[in-house]
Structure formats: C-alpha cells, structure tokens
C-alpha cells in the first residue's frame, strides 16, 4: 500500500486502533495522512484544565504521536469534541482531503460496533464510509475531481476479517499511545496496557489459527501481537447486507 488516510474522531484513536499497522506501513514507505475530526477538548476529568487548554495540549500530543509512527501529514477538521455537527458536515470537510490525496485505503473507527455510546465515533465512522462512497462520483463538485477509493478498513471492530502481525512494531504503537500523556499517563495505564496486550495476543492467536500455524503456538518464547480490522471494498458499503459476514 502506497497511500493511506486514517480518519479519527479524537486525537488518539488511530494509535489505539491501528498504531502497529501504521508504523509498519510507514516503515515501508507508505504515505500516511492523519485526519482528526474533533479537537478533543473534553477528553479529561481534571477540573483544573479548561477545554481551550486541553485542545492545545492534545494537538501537541497528536503531533508527537504521529512522529513516533512516521505519519506523513496531519489534517485537522476542527469540529468540537462531542459537538452538534452532523455527518454531512464531516463528509463535506473530508471529501476535499480524500480527492486530493487519492488514497488506496481509508481507515477509521467502526461505527457499527454494538454498545458504542460515543456520538463522535458513531458520526465520524459513518461519515467517513459515506465520504469514501461519494469520493468516486460527481457529488460535491466543489470538493475536487472524483477519485475511486478501492477499500475501507475499520479498526475497533466487532466483526474483524483481517489480522496483521504487528509484533515488531508494538513498541512504536505503545510509544505513540503514551505520547498522549493527558489521556494515558495516569493510574489506569497499567490496566489499559494489560488489556491492549491481551487483546492483541488474542488477535494473534486468531491469525495463527487462520494461517494454519496454531500448532506452533506452544513453541513461542515471546509474546506476539496482532491488530484486527474489518476490511471492505467500496462496493460493499452500499446495498450489500452480506458485508457483515465478509
């Protein structure tokens, strides 16, 4: 893959959902563009922090995390965290980026996860999928010339169909996550780290099983980690109910 756009609702979602894959692709020379939809102004329980101060803090953290992973370009759409924007607003803001970069894949959070309660995740995931569809037709002519985007990948999905070994890039992923100090450098981090490692080890177990390598599991002397994605072709994003089983 030579070009990838990663659309995140908040300034740390890409790292948590796909940091290992992003680091791997960047190392191979892929152009990686981060698009951050909201400013993350309410991502803290510290009453001493104003929302405006947190916006600035999280911007610096996001840029630092991107350097850890080798991100090529960062784009801010500037919507307010948990704001009253709608999906059409995100589509209109995102389309010029998609048509300018013309990526081979767009990646975002899966908005159709059961029990996902955050409206930013719901709206951004759905809007990104819609923007991938609209990118290839004559809708929104002011957003640039149409371009076909072959596929979309959803991270944090309950229905993954693709698993990628990211063991060699796990430390880069963890470094990028911890660059978001306002979010992760706290008493909860050891438990979160344990959860991330457990989940990634389970994904790697599935990868081994699908690859017919499960018999080697008992010989492994070090932890192995994978990330999981729901990958769909653009055609599967419309009038394709069987996509959930793909």
From TrEMBL:
InterPro entries, alphabetized: GlcNAc_PI_deacetylase-related (IPR003737), LmbE-like_dom_sf (IPR024078)
The organism's place on the tree of life at top rank: Bacteria
Pfam families: PIG-L
Protein name as it appears in the record: PIG-L deacetylase family protein
Biological source species: Alicyclobacillus fastidiosus
